[in-house]
Specification:
The protein is α+β, with helices and mostly antiparallel strands. It is about 30% helix and about 25% strand. The strands form three sheets. It has a four-stranded antiparallel β-sheet, covered by helices on one side. Strands 1-2 form a two-stranded antiparallel ribbon. The protein starts with a helix and ends in a 15-residue tail after the last strand.
Length: about 220
């Protein structure tokens, strides 16, 4: 999944000579927290609701009046993304820089904006959690073929895998989270345990024999 698949467009922008009061009203009307600042079609900064609150707070050493200009409080060194950047790279960049959004530039043209909320929605889509499904978590030996064996075991029970997420628990073990198209995960988990897999979730509990029925 790429940034262009999750970014918001068209982008609401503001001019550098707009007042802080105007920027605040625009954020309230559009229910947004970030405004790229554009001057003659060129991105020159970004202003956030936090910037406005801090600039006009009575706790500020020299509070700005509401008729002060956006250019006086905007952040001029803007971190951006490109439409073809992977979403995980955008997430890594936002975490590293501790920022809440990335304006998206195609060359010099502002074509979108991606926020933390957009990336959370992307994670839901990537994990399959945005549709009716169940969750299976398994600890596997970090060796070739074990993930394929797990997928084959699940398929043998006539269950489709919607998504696979994995991360190394150590140099020897891998955690694998499967999103499957059944909400009857306890029977499937117990069947996998009987086949020698170490299932972490769902936890083991007694259940009455029944078929493992995929969701529709």
């Amino acid at each position: 999944m790429l940034v262009q698949d999750v970014m918001q467009r068209p982008v609401q922008t503001i001019a550098p000579d707009a007042t802080l009061a105007a920027a605040y009203r625009l954020m309230q009307e559009r229910a947004i927290r970030h405004l790229p600042v554009v001057d003659e079609g060129r991105l020159v900064g970004i202003v956030t609701d936090r910037d406005l609150r801090l600039a006009t707070s009575a706790l500020h050493p020299h509070p700005f009046p509401p008729d002060a200009r956006v250019a006086s409080v905007m952040q001029r060194r803007v971190v951006t993304a490109a439409p073809l950047d992977p979403v995980e790279e955008a997430a890594r960049l936002m975490r590293m820089r501790r920022i809440g959004c990335l304006p998206v530039l195609d060359g010099d043209e502002l074509v979108g904006i991606v926020t933390v909320t957009d990336l959370l929605e992307a994670l839901l889509r990537l994990s399959g959690a945005d549709r009716p499904s169940g969750r299976i978590e398994v600890r596997l030996a970090h060796t070739p073929g074990r993930l394929a064996a797990l997928a084959s075991a699940v398929a043998a029970h006539h269950v489709n895998i919607l998504s696979v997420l994995s991360y190394p628990e150590s140099s020897e073990w891998l955690r694998v989270v499967l999103r499957v198209d059944t909400n009857r995960t306890h029977p499937l988990a117990d069947a996998l345990r009987q086949e020698g897999f170490e299932v972490i979730w769902p936890p083991h509990k007694p259940w009455s024999p029944s078929s493992i029925t995929p969701t529709t």
